[in-house]
Specification:
This protein is an alpha/beta fold. It contains 15 helices and 20 strands. It has a seven-stranded parallel β-sheet with strand order 11-14-15-10-9-16-17, with helices on both faces. The termini are far apart. The N terminus is likely disordered. The structure holds nicotinamide-adenine-dinucleotide.
């Protein structure tokens, strides 16, 4: 008899095991969703979910040793399983993430999974480099690190996990994840589905593991674990700092606050459409999303009109003030703003309702004029409201943009037809991603050239991560022979 494992069964077993874990009665390692074995008991440690970090790391280490021996052909099969699930099950998994995290937009949660599956680079990136000359040949090959510890954000829990998994497995590694607690349910489910499919395809389970209930302590345990060879950390300033303090090599995809500059030569209708496309994406949760606009005075009013024509709703000064009151508080000594996380990634109607006013119609994005030192300009606010700052000229706009970007070196955007201006701003901002005349997502290959990853390594400089990011370079040298010319 064949047993059909449905999502409902998986989900029920997960709930039961988690309930047991909470009561402290379950053994370790623990299987969160394993199919019953012949005697009807849950087999331990299957499909990636464990109670303790040590068990998750041990299982991933074991799996990686076998995986490494398969080489790129086997690695490609595992990657293909993840791609297929991201694409085929984008709708239910996107919905699950949306319902769990309660932030962002359902349509974009689904799209983010599809593009993770379609556009994250795979094993084709692992090209051997060869040098050949009178002294013989040398090969530079890209080898796995081993087990990677990956920390993922709530803003794209499963998309980041899936995209990381594709890049890291494509390079022959295994991964232990520590997802954000608020997006841990969908991360667990994704890991189970991926492992199940990979086991069917290549006979290896637990290439991707996590702890059932991730916390800051489990993240710290991963940072310090001796069997983890490399870290990849995607998140805000606190976790970026924690990773940079870790004794291990860390690839850090840190926070951003991407500014947009619009000059007098720009195609204003395209600029407005692009700003809405990028800033409204998943209610402005993207770290690359347009967070504030600096436009030169001579086209400022016209740009605002184009924003309205393209469907965004303009807030007046009183409405912006009311929204600011609910979106930010200050710390004890009033030296800095503190973001109200309850409004992060919420729909425009929710922001308006919290601020005490109603919107005249449905919209993707709110915007309005603010001074350059406004909290909505200076803080990474991740809400579908974008402040527009009127600037004397292009150079003032670039100065304000630099200040708002805080030296994160993450992302900046320009709308201009002046090549000199584009070059000047790209040099001044010195960011990892710089996009001209399109929405931010073009910088990740959506409506622009290039490839995608949800971990853009900013302070540590690896850029948009690829399988190569997660490899060690090894060189073989043969002296005197094998050059055949
Ligand atoms: P977050 O910093 O609150 O959490 C990110 C992850 O780090 C979570 O798994 C969290 O549990 C963990 N974490 C937080 N503080 C920690 C600490 N002190 N020690 C160990 N682990 C810790 O961020 P978030 O709200 O989930 O995501 C949004 C942030 O992530 C934004 O700042 C955004 O710019 C950034 N981000 C960056 C990229 C990138 O590619 N550079 C991609 C996505 C998100």
């Amino acid at each position: 008899m064949t047993l059909r494992i449905t999502d409902a069964i998986i989900s029920r077993v997960v709930q039961e095991v988690l309930a047991e874990l909470r009561q402290g009665s379950a053994p370790t390692p623990v299987a969160a969703s394993a199919p019953p074995s012949a005697n009807g008991q849950v087999r331990p440690g299957r499909w990636g979910v464990f109670e303790r970090v040590d068990d998750a790391v041990a299982a991933a280490s074991e799996a990686q040793k076998r995986f490494a021996r398969l080489g790129p052909t086997g690695w490609a099969k595992a990657v293909q399983c993840i791609r297929r699930i991201c694409i085929d099950q984008a709708e239910p998994l996107g919905r699950e993430e949306y319902e769990e995290t309660k932030i962002g937009r359902l349509d974009h949660k689904i799209e983010k999974l599809i593009v993770a599956g379609e556009r994250t680079p795979g094993v084709e990136w692992l090209l051997t480099h060869a040098y050949s000359g009178a002294d013989g040949v040398a090969l530079v090959e890209y080898a796995p690190f081993g087990v990677i510890g990956a920390i993922t954000p709530v803003t794209h829990s499963l998309p980041t996990l899936a995209s990381n998994a594709i890049s890291m497995l494509a390079a022959g590694n295994a991964v232990v994840f520590n997802p954000h607690p608020a997006g841990a349910g969908v991360a667990r489910h994704g890991v189970q589905l991926f492992n199940q499919a990979i086991e069917q395809a290549i006979g290896i389970d637990n290439l991707l593991t996590l702890v059932a209930e991730p916390t800051l302590e489990t993240a710290q345990a991963i940072f310090e674990h001796r069997d983890i060879q490399l870290l990849c950390v995607t998140g805000g300033a606190a976790v970026a700092r924690a990773a940079l303090r870790s004794p291990k090599r860390a690839i850090v995809a840190g926070p951003g606050n991407p500014p947009v500059v619009v000059d007098e030569t720009a195609d204003l209708a395209n600029a407005a459409r692009s700003i809405i496309r990028g800033a409204a994406y998943d209610n402005n949760l993207l770290c690359i999303g347009e967070k504030e606009v600096f436009a030169v005075a001579s086209i400022f009013d016209e740009l605002l009109e184009e924003m309205e024509k393209a469907g965004a709703i303009r807030l007046d000064t009183k409405q912006i003030e009311a929204l600011t009151q609910v979106a930010f508080t200050t710390n004890q000594d009033k030296s800095r703003y503190v973001l109200n996380k309850d409004l992060v990634g919420k729909d425009p109607e929710v922001l308006a309702a919290k601020a005490g006013f109603q919107l005249p119609r449905k919209t993707e994005l709110l915007f309005g004029e603010t001074p350059p030192d406004h909290p909505f300009v200076l803080e990474e606010q991740m809400m579908p409201f974008v402040p527009f700052v009127r600037c004397r000229d292009f150079y003032e706009a670039v100065e304000h943009a630099k200040r708002a970007e805080h030296g994160f070196r993450h992302t900046a955007i320009i709308h201009s037809r002046n090549v000199e201006a584009i070059t000047y701003m790209a040099r001044e901002l010195n960011t990892t991603l710089f996009i001209a005349n399109g929405p931010c997502v073009a910088g990740l290959g959506i409506g622009g050239e290039g490839y995608l990853s949800y971990s853009i390594a900013t302070p540590t400089g690896e850029g948009v991560t690829t399988p190569l990011t997660f490899t060690r370079q090894r060189r073989l040298t043969m002296t005197g022979s094998l050059r055949i010319i």
